[in-house]
Amino acid sequence: MTNSNYDLFVIGAGSGGVRAARIAASLGANVAIAEEKYLGGTCVNVGCVPKKLFVYASSFVDEFHAAENYGWDSGTHKFDWNTLVNNKNKEIERLNSIYGRLLSDSGVDLINGRATIVDTNTIHINNQTISAKNILIATGAWPMVPEIYGSEHVITSNEAFYLESLPDRIVVVGGGYIAVEFAGIFNGLGVDTTLVYRGPLILRGFDEEMRNFLTSEMQKKGINIITNNTIESIHKEDKHYRSSLADGNVLNTNMIMCATGRTPNTNGLGLELAGVETDDNGAIKINDKYQTSNSSIYAIGDVTDRYTLTPVAIAEGMSLAHSLYGDKNFSVDYINIPTCIFSQPNFAMVGYSEEQAKDHYGDIQIYKSEFTHMKYSLSGMDEKTFMKLIVDKQSDRVIGAHMIGHDAGEIIQGLAIAIKAGVTKSQMDATIGIHPTAAEEFVTMRTPA
C-alpha cells in the first residue's frame, strides 16, 4: 500500500533518483519513487552498463589476435550475438532486482507507473492522487532522431541493445560519445561500419589533438569515418537502405543508427501546471540548489541537460537529499570532472583541454608521450597509446590530463584525484613510476612539447 502524503516524491528511478530517495529516507523522510519503465534508468538498462559489456565483447577480436603472437593457438573465432544479448539481459535483470531491494531496504515506497504533476504538491499516478511536500524530477533524457525523410527506419542506442541479429553493414550517424562507442562495438563484432558526422572532427569539445589521434586509431581498425556530411534522406530497398548524403553521395547499408544527441525527458510531465520553467529543448531550469522555478519542485541529472554523466546525477541526488533532510553540507564540485569515452582504444580525460587552458591560463606547458603499449609489442597490432599533460606554467599545477589507450579510464581516475587535490608537475616528477606499466609515463614526461 502507498501513502497519500510524502515528504519527498521522486519521479524517475534512475541512478540519481534512486540515490536521492535512499539518502532522504535514511535521513528520516517519508519517500516514494515512481518509475514507468525500468529500475536503474538509462545507465543500467540502455546505457553505461550494457554498453560497457558490449565494448568488452567487441574487444576480444584484438585479444585473440594478440594471443597468437604470444604463443596461444586461439582456434576458431566464432561469435554468437544471441548469447551476448541473452547474458546481457540476465545481468540487467540482476541489477534491476538490486535496485528494487535497495529501495525496499531503505524504506522507500516504489510505485510502478507514469507519474505526472498536477500542481505544486500533487502527483497523479495509476489513478491515484498523491501529495508531497517536495517533488524531485529525475527522468533523464531520451535519444533524439533528426527529422529527415525515412527517419522511421533508423534505430537508436535503445534498440541497439536488443537487435535480433547483427547487420552485415551499418551506418552510425553522429560524432559524440554514443556514436563513437557504438562504431567501435559494431566494428569489433565484425560489422562493416561507417560513421557519418556533420562536423569536421568527432567528439566536439574535447582536446583537438586527442580527437585527431583517436580518429586515426579508429580508422586503423577499419572504421570508415565521413565528416562534414550528414544523411538527408533514407529509402528502404528490399533488405537494405539507401542513404543520401548532403554531398550527393549514397551509402547502401543494412542498418542505420542515429546517435545524434539526447533530449531531456520532460514531455507530458505536467510541468506547466506547476509553473516549472524549461529551456527550448525541454531541459528543466534549476538554481544552484537544484530548485526549479517552483520552490517545492527540484530536478537533477540529465533532465537538466548540464552534466550528463551518471556519477554527476548520483552526486546531485546525494547533495539534494542532505540539503533537504540532513545537517550535512554535501555540495557537488563540478570542476575537474573526469570522463571516459569507451571507444577502441579508450579515451579518458580530466581537467582542461589544450585549447581551454590557453584561453583560461594563457602561459601553459604541454607534455606528451606516444608509444606502443607493451602488451602490443609482440601482438603485431598497430595500436598506439597517447598521453598528454597540461600545466599552468606560473603555478606549476597540472590542469589537464588526457589519455588514449588501453585502460585509459582506469588510469585517469587515479590522476583525477591528484588533479582535484592540486598536484603540481614537480610532485608528479618526484613520484616513482610502477615499471613496466603504461601509467608510469605520466610521471616520466620531463620535456615540454
Can you put this structure into words, describing what you see?
Strands 1, 2, 3, 4, 5, 6 and 16 form a seven-stranded mixed β-sheet that branches. A five-stranded antiparallel β-sheet has the order 17-18-21-20-19, with helices on both faces. The mean pLDDT is 96. It is globular and about 65 Å long. The protein folds into three domains: 5-143 and 263-325, 3-Layer(bba) Sandwich (FAD/NAD(P)-binding domain); 151-260, FAD/NAD(P)-binding domain (3-Layer(bba) Sandwich), CATH 3.50.50; 339-443, FAD/NAD-linked reductase, C-terminal dimerisation domain (Enolase-like, domain 1, 2-Layer Sandwich). The chain is 30% helix and 24% strand. The chain is α/β, with parallel strands linked by helices and 449 residues long. A hairpin with a 5-residue loop joins β17 (339-341) and β18 (347-351).
Q: Topology of this structure?
A:
Elements: E1 5-11, H1 15-26, E2 31-35, H2 41-46, H3 48-69, H4 81-106, E3 109-112, E4 116-119, E5 122-125, E6 128-137, E7 141-143, H5 157-160, E8 169-173, H6 177-188, E9 192-196, H7 208-220, E10 224-226, E11 231-237, E12 240-245, E13 250-253, E14 255-258, E15 262-264, E16 297-299, H8 310-325, E17 339-341, E18 347-351, H9 354-360, E19 364-371, E20 385-392, E21 398-404, H10 408-420, H11 425-429
Parallel strand pairs: 1-2, 1-6, 2-3, 6-16, 8-9, 8-14, 9-10
Antiparallel strand pairs: 4-5, 5-6, 7-15, 11-12, 12-13, 17-18, 18-21, 19-20, 20-21
